[in-house]
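Quick one, T. Sequence first:
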Amino acid sequence: MTSTPERTAREHTTLSGLSFGGILRSEWIKLRTLRSTVWCYAIIVALTIGLGLLLAAVMPSGGVMTQSTTPSADAQQAAWLQATTLGIGFGELVSAVLGALVITGEYGTGMIRSTLTAVPKRLPALLAKAIVFGVTTFVVSLLSLVATALLTAPLMPAKDVHPDFGDGSFWLAIVGGAGYLAFIGVLALAIGSIIRNSAGGISAVLGLILVAPVIVQILVGVTRSKWAQNLGSFLPNSAGGKMYSYAPTATTPADGVVSLDPGQGFLVLALWFAVAFVIGAIMLKRRDA
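Structure tokens:
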């Protein structure tokens, strides 16, 4: 009669002492064994490469970024980058959906109880989910974008666009694009930890990505005010879009209108994630599973 309670107490102590490395490994196992993970990442790869090749094939002479028949070197690089990153606009939706499902799926199946039993402090589990999913999404996105750049490069000379593989600004934008997709995914994960429902979490993050910019554009059109334009600059998709923009030289913004550079866009998107993650962490600690 006494052996069972002693064994239970001993097992609970062992689980409570689970190292953060062990938590990361368990979250990696859960992520890679989900069929939704495989399908979503496959869609991101297919969209990125497929749309890039499509745009490179139908692009008019001189590229779509300029009307000049002899585009400058920067314009040519921008045209190549546009073909490479075209799929990001669609991939962000897939990343957002998968990010929300990573956490809300456990609430839906009840697996979250096992997760929180294994990690009683709770916060390491949420942090491990964000790290594993964010890093995996970044790596998959980066490989997809690099592959797209390499596959579209041979098609560009026919469009009077001659890619420069030694251009650091181009490859930095590629890294920024992969980082953007990863940030959107972990932002969705953080929002999912707040809402704890798959439909609600997906709706919330897609509303932030798709609906909020439309509302801001309506405000800009109605009020024609600079504050509305500035508000739009700090939305996740606007700020994140700066992370993969081609900006080898600084541009002068219009008077009174905020224009973020890639570094500032990264900081704004990181702040969005940090706020959502902190709120999700607080609610995870205070609410029952």
